[in-house]
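This protein record is not my work; I was only asked to verify it. Where you disagree with what is written, explain briefly why. This is what I was given:
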Amino acid sequence: MNNSVRDLRSERGWSQAELAQKLDVSRQTVNAIETGKYDPSLPLAFKIARLFGMPIEMIFVPGEE
């Protein structure tokens, strides 16, 4: 799955640690999501979408399998 979390975070001037704190996850989790090594759970994806004020499907898009 591809995502735009890194770009959205950078646009707001937030560090990975700041985003992690806002989402109540570890910085390592944010890094893994941004690098595509981890797909977030549905509740976490909703939390990310709410935080950025965007629909989930605008942040997370299926990649080629």
